[in-house]
Design goal:
Order of helices and strands: HHEEEEEEEHEEEEHEEE
Strand content: 35-45%
Largest sheet: 7 strands, antiparallel
Structural class: alpha+beta
Distance between the termini: 54 Å
Shape: globular
Helix content: 10-25%
Number of domains: 1
Radius of gyration: 22 Å
CATH topology: Jelly Rolls
């Protein structure tokens, strides 16, 4: 037998480990480099009982929503529960939108808030809400903005202030509708899910923040300031349980 008729196993192995990766997607190896976690949950808590890295923002004379971190299928998730309650969780975000414009997460609700009317200040409840607060451009700082900033500092001192988009699981509004928040001047509400057709199931969401900001405000965003989560039922006094997965920014 010719010495050239049989390729040594060692040589085959070397060819395998160097050539096969050329045919694989970059994400196979880049993995986490293509996304960053901006909404992370752990078993650790802050002094006020909030999940580690998050700040609880309560509302004057309103019972706060109960937020609890649970472990589900090997990962930490957030459970929100309340009857006639309202409070939020916020955390600072340090990420460049030009590099990571896509936001994604999963959520689940037990039911919608049946008395909620998203366009009315006195009925603006939502079973689940993911909030993105953006940085403010100097030209956007008007008298109204200044007044809103002062009011927020007095009533909800730890709540980040800036233009914001609130993604909600609504009651009866059609999906993809963009609404003015009836309570906050520089806030737009985008209805991602509506009704109870998908209740009690994990539903995944994926949005382009730059495109949504342009659609909501007519200009490019300056950057992200903070991330928030809110389940509120204080206007309706109804009960709901909602769950949130960790929240990511990604390149695509």
């Amino acid at each position: 037998m010719s010495v050239h008729s049989k390729v040594p196993r060692t040589r085959i192995f070397i060819l395998f480990i160097f050539i096969i990766p050329l045919f694989l997607e970059p994400s196979t190896f880049a993995g986490e480099a293509n996304r960053i976690t901006i909404g992370k949950f752990t078993a650790e808590k802050e002094a006020d009982g909030s999940p580690k890295g998050w700040k609880s923002v309560t509302h004057f004379n309103t019972t706060p929503t109960s937020y609890q971190v649970l472990k589900y299928q090997g990962k930490y998730i957030l459970k929100a529960e309340g009857i006639g309650t309202c409070s939020s969780l916020f955390r600072e975000v340090k990420a460049e939108l030009k590099d990571y414009p896509i936001i994604s997460w999963k959520w689940k609700i037990s039911n919608v808030i049946r008395q909620a009317i998203e366009t009315r200040k006195d009925r603006n409840d939502s079973a689940a809400r993911v909030i993105i607060v953006f940085k403010t451009r100097p030209e956007e700082i008007t008298l109204w903005y200044g007044l809103e900033y002062l009011v927020t500092r007095v009533l909800r001192k730890d709540e980040p202030v800036g233009p914001r988009i609130e993604y909600i699981w609504g009651n009866r509004m059609e999906k993809e509708r963009i609404l003015d928040n009836p309570s906050i001047k520089y806030s737009r509400v985008i209805v991602l899910e509506t009704g109870e057709g998908k209740a009690n199931r994990w539903i995944g969401e994926k949005r382009n923040l730059v495109e949504d900001y342009k659609a909501a405000f007519g200009t490019d965003p300056e950057g992200i300031l903070a991330l928030g989560i809110q389940t509120d039922t204080d206007q309706s006094n109804e009960g709901v349980t909602a769950y949130y997965s960790e929240i990511f920014l990604s390149k695509r």
